[in-house]
Amino acid sequence: xxxxxxxxxxxxxxxxxxxxxxxxxxxxxxxxxxxxxxxxxxxxxxxxxxxxxxxxxxxxxxxxxxxxxxxxxxxxxxxxxxxxxxxxxxxxxxxxxxxxxxxxxxxxxxxxxxxxxxxxxxxxxxxxxxxxxxxxxxxxxxxxxxxxxxxxxxxxxxxxxxxxxxxxxxxxxxxxxxxxxxxxxxxxxxxxxxxxxxxxxxxxxxxxxxxxxxxxxxxxxxxxxxxxxxxxxxxxxxxxxxxxxxxxxxxxxxxxxxxxxxxxxxxxxxxxxxxxxxxxxxxxxxxxxxxxxxxxxxxxxxxxxxxxxxxxxxxxxxxxxxxxxxxxxxxxxxxxxxxxxxxxxxxxxxxxxxxxxxxxxxxxxxxxxxxxxxxxxxxxxxxxxxxxxxxxxxxxxxxxxxxxxxxxxxxxxxxxxxxxxxxxxxxxxxxxxxxxxxxxxxxxxxxxxxxxxxxxxxxxxxxxxxxxxxxxxxxxxxxxxxxxxxxxxxxxxxxxxxxxxxxxxxxxxxxxxxxxxxxxxxxxxxxxxxxxxxxxxxxxxxxxxxxxxxxxxxxxxxxxxxxxxxxxxxxxxxxxxxxxxxxxxxxxxxxxxxxxxxxxxxxxxxxxxxxxxxxxxxxxxxxxxxxxxxxxxxxxxxxxxxxxxxxxxxxxxxxxxxxxxxxxxxxxxxxxxxxxxxxxxxxxxxxxxxxxxxxxxxxxxxxxxxxxxxxxxxxxxxxxxxxxxxxxxxxxxxxxxxxxxxxxxxxxxxxxxxxxxxxxxxxxxxxxxxxxxxxxxxxxxxxxxxxxxxxxxxxxxxxxxxxxxxxxxxxxxxxxxxxxxxxxxxxxxxxxxxxxxxxxxxxxxxxxxxxxxxxxxxxxxxxxxxxxxxxxxxxxxxxxxxxxxxxxxxxxxxxxxxxxxxxxxxxxxxxxxxxxxxxxxxxxxxxxxxxxxxxxxxxxxxxxxxxxx
Length: 949
Description:
Elements: H1 16-26, H2 29-33, E1 39-40, E2 51-56, H3 73-77, H4 82-102, E3 110-112, H5 135-150, E4 159-165, E5 178-179, H6 183-199, E6 205-208, E7 212-213, E8 216-217, H7 223-231, E9 237-238, H8 244-247, H9 258-268, H10 281-292, H11 298-314, H12 335-348, E10 350-354, E11 365-369, H13 391-396, E12 400-404, E13 408-414, E14 417-420, E15 431-433, E16 443-447, E17 453-457, E18 463-466, E19 472-476, E20 488-492, E21 498-502, E22 508-511, E23 517-520, E24 530-535, H14 537-546, E25 550-556, H15 576-588, E26 592-597, H16 605-610, E27 613-617, H17 624-632, H18 667-670, E28 688-695, E29 699-700, E30 705-714, E31 720-730, E32 741-750, E33 755-763, E34 769-771, E35 776-778, E36 782-789, E37 795-803, E38 818-819, E39 825-827, E40 829-833, E41 840-844, E42 849-857, E43 862-870, E44 875-881, E45 888-895, E46 905-910, E47 917-924, E48 930-938
Parallel strand pairs: 2-3, 3-4, 4-6, 5-7, 6-9, 11-12, 11-25, 25-26, 26-27, 29-37
Antiparallel strand pairs: 1-2, 7-8, 10-27, 13-14, 13-16, 13-24, 14-15, 16-17, 18-19, 20-21, 22-23, 28-30, 30-33, 31-32, 31-36, 34-35, 36-37, 38-48, 39-42, 40-41, 41-48, 42-47, 43-46, 43-48, 44-45, 44-47
Helix pairs in contact: 1-11, 4-5, 4-12, 5-6, 9-10, 12-17, 14-15
Organism: Sphaerisporangium flaviroseum
Keywords: Hydrolase, Signal
Domain CBM6: 816-937
């Protein structure tokens, strides 16, 4: 590296804009191009080092070695304690810096966290990465964590990146599926989760998601430049997700070739391409080609490079020193961080049910049971555990414990003998032998749900995996890695036999030469086994439980199996074997506590009806066992609260790909059923009384603040923690409103008998909803209800107030064209892209599908309507009033075949009997017709010389 060049850009006393402009002006076009990849090239002549985006730090530093592991993100949010979440972000940021100082090329300071996708559907494979189904609470927690990561000083500690923009909640087909996002859901739900961290400056970077939104790749969303960057007070860095750029011409086939696609991405706001790992040449070649073909200008590159350089400047890279230069490896997993990990794990624990069995009262002997009772799981974005305090270990420090995993021990038999494993710790190929030591034929069978099983050889305690050569070997510590190769499905065969199907590859297990088990592409060549039960895990666990004072069953998910990145769940039930285990243990000892450790909700209906107590937490990190023991024994009050609804069945959920939470009555905001456990739910070991509800005003106006006071009293005999939650409901509106919506909360700890007056504030402007008739947020004139309580369904006090807001008039069809996407209701259509760069349209997917525009004021009458349409096959659109099936037909439009779906043309018709205020329906008589807008011409009123209005 050459000696640093002096100049304005190295002078920390100069304005940031001047420093960036100075450095940008010194770079050649080729040097600028080299800064557009994840692995940014060094510029030796200017003394610029290499720079890499993307250090994973979702709940602690990940992938780079041993570091403090905190509870998963959904667990952190369950604390309902933003300051604690911020402290975890601070500790994580410090450890990132420590690793960066040790290895600058391996640990970059651009951190890819937090994830602020609202947890719309609990089946999403990445549920544990987010914070809440509520967008406002997601924004609060995401801002807190990002603020901790970046620090409070002008120089950033790290540069946090919000993931994943936008409308990303499915892993199945995630690179080719399009999230159908109506305007209200976009503005009131999705964008609302991202805005706070950007607007506050807590996050300084953004990562678009893999999916498409309304038919357009999220990476090309006009919202990146048009909305998100307008929130930011300073330059925002936009980085792609891994390998996403190639999808534009590959899986998505949105553009014809990479130069065209990459040019479009840069113009849409992408600054850094995460493509081809640390081999940037191919990506840079496409950018050079785009420049050569005139698809990009140097000004386009300057814009992207400026965003990148701004972050590097703010990280202090070009300053003589930074406030973080003294951070060393000593901060990693230091005692203060261990204590913080324990505190976070403790506060994240949620008591779902308790009939009085908890807290435990000096039991002499506890049976600790279950597949998660003596292990701590690392998810894909976890750090490497420096140590692991399991549930068993934490409880064993308090009293005598007996342990059993509660999994079945089995043998696999076929005509040639039994499947046999090697004893060596490094494993050996599994072979079928006619005879041998019985212990070598035994395997522990783990049921992780969704039909996914793992086999652990008793011979050496290692899990069975399929190697690259397809041979089955018992050589792994458990399911692990990006491509999990240690799980199988048990496919039923005739007469009670089964075949093993390898989940990762879809191939069956067959019998090779010398009796070796290996994968085969031919299902007919699958080996057929008889599963012999050596020991029933449920029965053995029940026998252990029967002799104990209390049984603790620790169940849940494996974070890398049946619900993880690339894999959604299909149902909400506990794995069948775990469900059977809970029932068997409870039958043997009614004093059973179910402890669930998982990154997502389960529909534990039987347990709710039968088990005395149920406790949930996310996977809790290195101090989980201490935290759990502290709560179970009553040292700590269970202060966690749920941040998403726990449903009774997946049948209560809409299709995973349906993102319209308003139309489908999804999340606690619109759900009208009775959940298993509601949003905000969680019990304390004490009881709280609510009284003296006080509202600062009975009528408020936009721009004002409503102050809501309440008195909370601990009326129990123990100190405890309460999370006081404030919800509102708009009681009258032009549109469908949430049943309830969280507006504020306060976490309080009260001694027995202690009373505290709490005041929470509601910004009246936050009561706005997106009005599709005007294309903006509106605070509507309406009565509202305020509700204060312990959860969204446990409301203790209610009050009423009125908002002196706007009255939304009927739509004026003559003032401007009606955008088809701004409809009020729809059926049998999808939202799609009107053009590759910007604009949304509506495409009919079912004959008879329709869009509705409520309360259209045609005044004295409409003379004609002109629709902007396209259809490669042609079709007919019918305009009806007040009903899509039986309403009066006022017009019909024939749509001629177009060159492609972006080849829009005007198609019109005269209108008859369209006068006064009516609901207007546009009915798609054929599938495949796309409409972007409708323009109306008013009839001339009798005796008038001008228009009808």
